[in-house]
TrEMBL record:
PANTHER family in the cross-refs: GLUCOKINASE, RPIR-FAMILY TRANSCRIPTIONAL REGULATOR
Transmembrane spans: 248-268
Protein's name in the database: MurR/RpiR family transcriptional regulator
Source species: Tabrizicola soli
Pfam families given in the database record: HTH_6, SIS
Length: 272
């Protein structure tokens, strides 16, 4: 049976994710279907009706309404309000970011600002690095027959750079680039490992590949931003890195440094 209904609904989308994870595995079948569907489709809640969400989960609307109550909401409308408010405060699109960017007309000023953001990101990485998780990731990847790399959208430069570095280091690596919509899931083989890079609000393609790898028994190392609570059950090892933004633009300074360190450490471990 599900746990007792919380007295107060989650106040943020992140708190919603945490409560969703806490309830997972404690629910009857239909309510678990609701939880599983919502976990993978949080971006649809703000603009979808309860009937549409229920249809996607394969349950009647009444089951979805019951699930909302278990999450602490009075009903679907209150749950949807949380996501609509979050949508209204979502990061601006790139045209808006550019229009609001201070110093956009002075290239040298932009360089200075992005260098400063990168410096802060690097300092945060050195200060907050989880050495235990890093060692676990190195051990996992060094034992792999082949390392699969997945990173889409903003994460793709990291994944593609890792593919280049690992190849130069003589390590078998396979880049999942999603060209032509090909998932390349069938090339996940026993003895392989997946290194997946994704940042909130997370890439559906990357999460799907990580789930497939877990289903096939492959170890998964995730490289993401904190707090990564939604990803807790998806990776065997989770490495987090914070990137400081300037004008809502985020560089990849710290994550590239961590990725390069990881690749070199894996190569060194395989040599011993």
């Amino acid at each position: 049976m599900p746990r007792e209904t919380p007295s107060d609904p989650p106040a943020t989308v992140e708190a919603f994710r945490e409560r969703l994870m806490a309830l997972s595995g404690t629910l009857p079948r239909r309510l678990q279907q609701c939880a599983d569907h919502l976990a993978g489709h949080l971006d649809q809640i703000a603009l979808s009706t309860v009937a549409q969400i229920a249809r996607g989960a394969g349950v009647p609307p009444s089951a979805m309404m019951r699930f909302c109550q278990i999450m602490g909401f009075s009903g679907y409308a209150e749950m949807q309000r949380l996501f609509r408010e979050a949508l209204s405060t979502a990061p601006p699109d790139y045209a808006t970011r550019l229009a609001n960017l201070k110093g956009a007309g002075h290239p040298a000023t932009l360089v200075a600002e992005f260098v400063e953001a990168g410096r802060q990101s690097m300092e945060a990485l050195a200060r907050d690095l989880d050495e235990t998780a890093l060692n676990q990731a190195v051990e996992t990847l060094s034992r792999a027959r082949a390392i699969h790399l997945a990173g889409f959208r903003r994460s793709f430069p990291v994944a593609s750079y890792l593919a280049y570095v690992l190849d130069k280091l003589g390590l078998p690596a396979i880049l999942h680039d999603g060209v032509a919509g090909l998932g390349q899931r069938t090339i996940l083989q026993p003895g392989d490992a997946l290194l997946a890079i994704t940042f909130a609000p997370y890439s559906d393609e990357t999460l799907a590949l990580a789930r497939e790898a877990r289903a096939r028994g492959l170890p998964v190392v995730l490289l993401t931003d904190p707090p990564a609570t939604r990803l807790a059950g998806l990776g065997d090892t989770i490495l987090t890195v914070t990137e400081i933004d300037f004008g809502a633009f985020r560089s990849l300074s710290a994550v590239i440094a961590l990725a390069l360190s990881l690749a070199v450490a894996v190569a060194a471990r395989r040599e011993t």
